[in-house]
Design brief:
The protein is an alpha+beta fold and 405 residues long. The chain has helices at residues 26-38, 56-71, 83-91, 104-112, 183-186, 252-263, 303-309, 338-341, 369-379; strands at residues 2-9, 12-21, 43-54, 75-79, 99-101, 120-125, 128-134, 144-147, 163-166, 172-178, 191-196, 199-204, 212-214, 224-233, 239-245, 250-251, 267-276, 281-284, 310-311, 322-330, 350-357, 382-388, 393-403.
Length: 405
């Protein structure tokens, strides 16, 4: 039999356990650990003061939780084990993997070593708590516009409109793109595309699409991407920001305003990792080639053509999924060249594509941002790549900002 209660103190969540931890009770405890981890808690203190027996099956749940938390910069701390339980922990080598302690002050001192340094700024803007790492000496990068969107609205693209981009020329980017060598072979597979740390994902505009991708490094210069239109940028982060909504999930359009305000730049590149609390995305159902143009001569966005051409949600999806994406945002569209202005639709001041990845805990340590981006895109399954709408909501996440000239 097992009982427990949950409390929060000393910057951690305490699971105060009572009874036996064995093969019969451990599944329930593991379920509780998993629930707390997915809620965003990163330090779990297992109070074993009132545990009178633990088996190897019981030990396994702590190892499972520790593996999950270590991925995201967290840990399980084991507190006040009874002598017979402590002997089992020592015999199993837990003292080399876990922090074992018998006094609360030890926990406070242990956690204090990971406190935010003076290089970080913590603040709150419009109900969002931010931890900001700023690198003011970073030189702005240039935005690269690829191809043109002129052929999109009336589905007028042809082979001459395709732009070939070597993989090692762009670190981040979005657009309408695909992979392949021969136009006859790849022309029907263009779709919403995303470049994150030179890793390329695209969602072909076909019946029953599936995300295809190519993981690349700068040394693989023989690989190239085929774009109908898009944009990209390189450069280093001027800011890395961890954010968490305090009372209610934050909409993407509000988050973008905060990022522009924090960066102080007129135009920024955005690299985003966040937990969805209602995702609104859209993507093409058909490739906008001349041979596919609407029979009525209208635009693909006209009401009579829209549903045939666009996958557009009527309600939010993918609650709790991890959204990994990138794009650009500007403070004032009137100051842009016509070429750059064409990248934004309507009154929107941002253009972002993102992948919808499986639910998993996020490491929100800003110093580990690039590592976490790579972990998500290489270890987690992705179901779609879509253009992200401003009413998408997030509970928390991280953003890398690259100033653009």
């Amino acid at each position: 039999m097992i009982e427990w209660n949950i409390s929060e103190e000393t910057d951690a969540v305490w699971i105060n356990l009572q009874g036996r931890i064995d093969s019969m009770t451990s599944p329930d405890i593991l379920q509780e650990f998993t629930r707390l981890i997915h809620q965003g808690h990163r330090v779990l203190v297992a109070n074993l003061a009132e545990i009178n027996y633990i088996s190897s099956a019981g030990l396994r749940i702590f190892i499972t939780a520790q593996k999950e938390l270590k991925k995201v910069g967290g840990e399980v701390i084991i507190y006040q084990s009874a002598p017979q339980v402590y002997d089992v922990l020592k015999m199993s080598g837990f003292d080399t993997v876990f922090f074992l302690c018998a006094d609360r002050s030890e926990i406070e001192q242990h956690l204090r070593k990971d406190e935010v340094s003076e290089d970080f700024v913590q603040k709150e803007i419009d109900g969002v708590a931010l931890t900001v790492l700023e690198k003011p000496a970073v030189v702005p990068d240039s935005l690269r516009v690829i191809g043109s969107q002129a052929g999109l609205s009336h589905s007028k693209y042809e082979e001459s409109d395709v732009k070939t981009v070597p993989a090692n020329e762009i670190r981040f980017g979005t657009g309408l793109a695909t992979l392949g060598d021969s136009y006859a072979e790849y022309k029907n597979y263009f779709g919403e595309a995303l470049l994150l740390n030179q890793n390329f994902f695209y969602y072909p505009a076909v019946h029953r699409p599936a995300v295809d991708f190519m993981c690349c490094t700068a040394q693989q210069s023989n690989i190239s991407y085929k774009f109908l239109h898009g944009f990209g940028f390189n450069g280093s982060y001027s800011h890395v920001i961890s954010f968490e909504s305090i009372d209610a999930p934050i909409q993407l359009e509000s988050l973008v305003d905060i990022l522009l305000q924090t960066s102080g730049a007129a135009m920024i590149g955005i690299v985003l990792l966040a937990e969805s609390k209602g995702f609104w995305g859209m993507n093409l159902r058909k490739v906008p080639l001349r041979e596919n143009s609407p029979a009525n001569g209208g635009e693909i966005f006209d009401p009579e053509n829209f549903t045939e051409w666009m996958n557009f949600p009527v309600e939010p999806t993918d609650n709790n999924a991890i959204i990994a994406g990138c794009g650009i945002a500007v403070s004032d569209k009137d100051r842009l060249s016509s070429e750059v202005n064409s990248l934004f639709s309507g009154k929107s001041r941002f253009h972002i594509h993102a992948g919808v990845f499986e639910e998993t805990p996020l490491n929100k340590n800003v110093e580990s941002f690039d590592h976490e981006v790579n972990r998500i895109i290489t270890e987690c399954d992705v179901c779609r790549i879509q253009h992200v709408q401003g009413k998408t909501k997030f509970s928390d996440g991280m953003v890398g900002i690259i100033r653009l000239a």
